[in-house]
Write a structure and sequence with these properties.
Elements lengths: L1 E9 L2 E10 L5 E5 L6 H8 L7 E5 L6 E4 L14 H6 L4 H17 L3 H20 L5 H11 L4 H4 L8 H14 L4 E5 L7 H12 L4 E5 L3 H7 L2 E6 L4 E6 L2 H36 L4 H19 L26 E8 L10 E8 L4 E5 L6 H8 L7 E6 L5 E4 L23 H10 L16 H13 L5 E5 L7 H12 L4 E5 L3 H5 L5 E4 L4 E4 L2 H13 L2
Parallel strand pairs: 3-7, 3-8, 5-6, 6-7, 12-16, 12-17, 14-15, 15-16
Antiparallel strand pairs: 1-2, 1-4, 8-9, 10-11, 10-13, 17-18
Helix pairs in contact: 3-4, 10-11
């Protein structure tokens, strides 16, 4: 891949500035950089989803690229086909073989030698394509991927539109591996993988005869598969390519930053020294004046080439405050039942009953696909139950954090997503600053944000609802470990009621959870960390 004179801005904010770089083929490249450096944006430029202001990224002609985004909600089509059929469609083998048979039939009845030659040329091309897709071993290869990624028979028979978020991710990943692109782009690929599946993917990618570009917070994964690291420098808007894995990059980069810091300190001393001479002798005459003028030129030259030191990464400052207290029992669920397919005999949620008392921290756990997110959507009024009743207290103010950020409008800017909030723009911008969106950041379209950035926007909006009952659906997904700790402390101190879906033991442990609802059984238990750890294991092993 050749990057030539690449420049990209969003409004007045520059993301990449005049980048020139060559990356050899068939490398396994880790993409790293601080939040907002443009990692996911870079992938979208590679895929042609975003056009740069100037410059080009060149691959060899007709190269096939495959992408696994962090959030799969819009990428896996909601179609009435099974997971197995969706996986099979990763290679166009059925279509190619049908075309081949049709051409053989044409050859059998064709009298003209010239036309026969044309048809045989088409046969050669189709056979070459079938060979590329490993026609005779494709079924075996798919079964290895299905087994290696622990995709169960039950999941294979499900329809795509029945999958949970975690199931979508695993199925999309498996199909991507099976589809054999020449360039694989992976954005946080290990989020939904257990240790065995992750090891299978590591081995698969290490032996993959193509280029792999991966964004990941999983350091072990990066260390195992990467042969190069591409560092996106938010400070300079440039990119630097390092040989070796992530640990090797960190060592080299830290050494470079230390040297830069020393040079910057020396430079500051020199600037101060020269400035003192200029200030002292600028009104003098003769040799002293010429000396001052000479030092002023040197000073201007140093300042124009001043070394920028990476500032310490700021932390989000999150506060959740409620406008009033709720009723003693803000939520009561009675005999609730719901299913997506009204012709199905099996409910997603069946005769479920529970109630929450004011100030209670309440956890929902269960395997992927059993209806945890569906329950929150029913309570939020986004879905209508088939039977039963949801009673929300007349003093209950709901605040809902959706796992896949579907409450955000992707076509609007960050600040325009707050147009329904009765606060001035200055006040909203101050609050967004606490969530690490500064200056012109607020004018970015939500569609171009990384999933981690979208999470912070959603949390910022949630913080302004004044809600006394929060419903949180996997709120730590896509967030870096530091921000996860911050929101755990924030929600621990929240005085209202909380209904939480999460299988992150470190996060949940901090919340002072009192009771746990287990789906699909509807069983109520007192909080036990071992239960959360169990479902964390199950949901990364049996997606």
């Amino acid at each position: 891949m050749e990057i030539k004179d690449l420049t990209l801005s969003f409004g007045v904010q520059k993301i990449f500035n005049d980048i020139n770089l060559n990356i050899p083929e068939n490398e396994k490249v880790g993409i790293v950089g601080v939040n907002g450096a443009g990692k996911t944006t870079f992938f979208k430029v590679l895929l042609g989803l975003i056009s740069p202001d100037s410059g080009k990224i060149r691959f060899k002609n007709n190269i096939r690229k495959g992408w696994l985004p962090q959030v799969i909600s819009d990428e896996v089509p909601s179609m009435d086909i099974t997971v197995f059929d969706f996986l099979l469609s990763g290679r166009p083998l059925i279509q190619l073989n049908e075309k081949l048979q049709q051409i053989y039939e044409q050859i059998a009845i064709e009298q003209s030698e010239n036309k026969q030659r044309e048809l045989f040329n088409k046969v050669d091309k189709l056979q070459n394509r079938l060979e590329y897709w490993n026609f005779y071993s494709a079924d075996t290869e798919l079964l290895k991927i299905i087994s290696g990624m622990a995709i169960t028979d039950d999941l294979l028979n499900k329809k795509l539109n029945e999958l949970s978020g975690g199931q979508k991710s695993k199925v999309a990943f498996a199909r991507l591996l099976y589809s054999m692109p020449e360039v694989i782009l992976l954005d946080e690929p290990t989020n939904h993988l257990d240790s065995d599946s992750k090891q299978f993917v590591c081995n698969f990618l290490k032996n993959y005869k193509g280029s792999v570009y991966v964004i990941s917070h999983d350091i072990d994964f990066l260390n195992e598969i990467t042969t190069k690291i591409l560092f996106l420098d938010k400070r300079t808007k440039k990119m630097e390519l390092y040989d070796g894995n992530y640990n090797h990059f960190v060592k080299l980069h830290e050494e470079k930053e230390k040297n830069l810091l020393k040079l910057a300190e020396q430079q500051e001393k020199e600037i101060k020294r020269l400035q003192e001479i200029v200030d002292k002798y600028q009104s003098a005459s003769g040799k002293r004046k010429r000396m001052a003028q000479d030092r002023e030129k040197k000073l201007e030259k140093i300042i124009s080439n001043k070394i920028e030191v990476t500032p310490k990464q700021k932390k989000a400052q999150i506060r959740m405050e409620m406008l009033r207290e709720s009723n003693n029992f803000p939520l009561n669920v009675n005999d609730l039942s719901f299913k997506y397919d009204k012709n199905s005999k099996q409910d997603i949620i069946h005769n479920l009953s529970f109630e929450l008392k004011r100030g209670e921290k309440f956890l929902i756990v269960g395997e992927n696909g059993v209806g945890k997110s569906t329950l929150l959507k029913l309570i939020a009024g986004q879905l209508v139950p088939d039977s039963g009743e949801i009673q929300i207290g007349n003093k209950t103010d709901l605040g809902y954090y959706a796992q896949e950020h579907e409450l955000l409008d992707n076509n609007k800017s960050i600040i325009d997503n707050f147009s329904d909030v009765p606060l001035s723009n200055n006040r909203i911008r101050n609050i967004l600053g606490r969530f690490l969106f500064y200056g012109d950041d607020v004018f970015k379209k939500v569609s171009i944000l990384s999933p981690g950035e979208k999470s912070r926007v959603a949390l910022a909006k949630l913080s302004l609802t004044g809600a006394n009952m929060l419903m949180l659906d996997e709120p730590t997904n896509h967030l870096d470990p530091e921000t996860q700790k911050i929101i755990a402390e924030t929600f621990k101190d929240f005085k209202g009621t909380m209904l939480v879906v999460s299988h992150n033991p470190e996060f949940v442990d901090n919340l002072d959870i009192e009771r746990v609802l287990v789906l699909p059984s509807g069983q109520l238990d007192f909080y036990d960390r071992k239960m959360v750890e169990y479902y964390h294991q199950v949901n990364t092993k049996k997606v």
